Amino acid sequence: MADEPSKEKSLEIDYTIPKKSWMEPSTEFRKGTYCYPAASRHEKYLELPHPREWQPTDEDWKLPEDWREVILRGMEDRLNRYRSYRLFLDICVRCGACADKCHFFIGSGDPKNMPVLRAELLRSIYRKYFTLSGKVFGKLAGARELTEEVVKEWFSYFYQCTECRRCSVFCPYGIDTCEITMMARELLNLVGLNINWILEPAANCYRTGNHLGIPPHAFKSTVDFAVDELQEITGVKVEVPINRKGAEILFISPSADYFASPHWYTFLGYLLLFHEIGLDYTWSTYASEGGNFGLFHSAELAKRLNAKIYSEAKRLGVKWILGGECGHMWRVIHQYMDTFNGPADFLEEPVSPITGTRFDHARSTKMVHICEFTADLMMNNKLRLDPSRNRKWKVTYHDSCNTARGMGLFEEPRYILRNVCQEFYEMPENTIKEKTFCCGSGSGLGADENMETRLRGGFPRANAVRYVHEKFGVNLLTCICAIDRATLPPLLEYWVPGVEVAGVHELVGNALVLRGEKERTTNLRGEPLDSTISPSPSSGERAG
Amino acid sequence: MVLKDLLSKNEAAILKRWFDLILETYPADTASLMKKDKDPFTNPVGSTISREIEILFGKLCEGIQDEKCQSSLDSILKIRSVQDFPPSKAVGFIFLLKRAIGEMLRDEIAKAPAIEEWLKFQSRIDDLALQAFDVYMDCREKICDIRVKQARIEKEMAFRMMERMTPSKEKR
Fold first, then answer.
1. What average pLDDT does this structure show over A102-129?
2. Does domain A40-194 have CATH number 3.30.1380?
3. Where along chain A do the CATH 1.10.1060 domains lie?
4. Sign of the dihedral through C-alpha B25, B30, B31, B37
5. Dist. CA A428–CA A468, nearest whole Å
6. Is A181 helix (H, G, I), strand (E, B) or coil?
7. Interface touch A455/B82, C-beta < 8 Å
8. Fewer CB in a 10 Å sphere around the end CB: N or C, chain A?
């Protein structure tokens, strides 16, 4: 029988965390914190390697026999292919500038979520197999053997990074930690380690053109449904062209906009705007998704899913492309589409048919962001707006990571918001624009099963929202990203109850005064407008 | 009253020690960053804990367990409920106050006729810990509720469209 502890001994509870070196891989997969692996049928559909059923909590992950060789070969291939990858692995001096900038680190307190340490999980393997110092000095040079435990650790931590690039803003060398995560995920994918929340939408997209797997006739039904709803609210029957050859502009938005809530109201806003200005445009049931979950898997898959955009623009014979409110869609368009599937030399340099403004910055991609387009309309006094219809909202704006850090789109959404609502308040300076905090659920992590990880990752964002909620009474968080619109509501329900989420064009749709409309009694959500305050329509720019 | 005076005289030191002990429940590298950064937006965990334990300490000294107490516990436990703590460690930070006071005022409490008061004060800390456990459970239940609600929201648009289609079917 074991010795009984003395009374004094049993009262000594050690609350401190035992010290353990990061070099020893250790991963605990606790329910509620990890994403489910991809179902093998999706892997098969996309013809990805080593499809099988497995769970992170299993002891045996059923890796292929030659998994180590596959990963090392994949690493070598990428080191040769991407100069940036080798540079980012070599150049870090571990200064720690990025350490406390990651929302997952801030929220979880787990040091392996410091961007520098997360990257070391990969760098240590690079050193061991691809650098002389690592080969000779091993651990002393920060090198580690590639073991199954290391692979499990990669799976845990590289799926706790939303590729938001906040850490990169603070790196004195400009290391893009997002690219480290991208490479690590590509290596994991080579041995069949995928998550379902990425691969199911990707497989859907490959089959139907959109993440939600909506076929053309269902797309048409949702449009009809929207037309009915808008007629009830405004008295105006809007025209919504679909697959119309010869239209001037092809419009592409994330599929969630026409099949999820609260995205739906942003969709209604687009339809009202295009109808009111008489835009010569079309939707496509094939390029029916701007988002690209392939980006969260591999460059190859991103390219495959992106191809439909130019292909459909060509088939329909449009002049240029307009894109809706989405985050990572714009990362792909702005940074990769041109080299993935361009040059789009069959398209014309985008010019607004309403204002004549030439969108020089989109000269190469031929694709313009809807906020740029709408802000230009407002700047040129082309819209009649009644901001009082949004008077129930005290509004703040969340810069979505990809549009903010990926393409520098800061002012246009704010300009629109100041024109369409009466009260707008900024969150603290170090939580917006290029320093914006991620929603905590981007890059394919917006599943339900990892809700705890999402809630802690989104805490820094929610904390800033709480500040403006308590200080100014803010009750609406606006954003221009479909993933944000899906993932911010549960985040705020937990951390800041009483704040709702909307797309910018939902508020545009509310404020827009249509020709021939009836007196509006509700907003686009069907909520009654307060009739005691008489609306005062204004034209064009209202506030700076 | 002797204990109350002792506590109020040493409030800053006690709060600092309590804060440091709570941070020791995090890995050392994390704790040092949480201690260093005073910005409530870039270090929301450290600043929330620091802000709210001050309120809790004040309420304990006054012998009041009210809504403010509940709100402070809620702010801290919302965080600790989604971090990788087992329930005992998530709420256990309350008991660290006993250790902080014990370490700092053990001799004074023993010397002064304050033992009775100290025992009463410890009971208040125990009560607060029980309240903390209730708050912790509320947070965990909220997480479950949110997950269930999410599953419903994902189908919301489909349901709305079905509802719209049903009356027209009946007409036929």
1. 96
2. no
3. 40-194
4. negative
5. 8
6. helix
7. yes
8. N
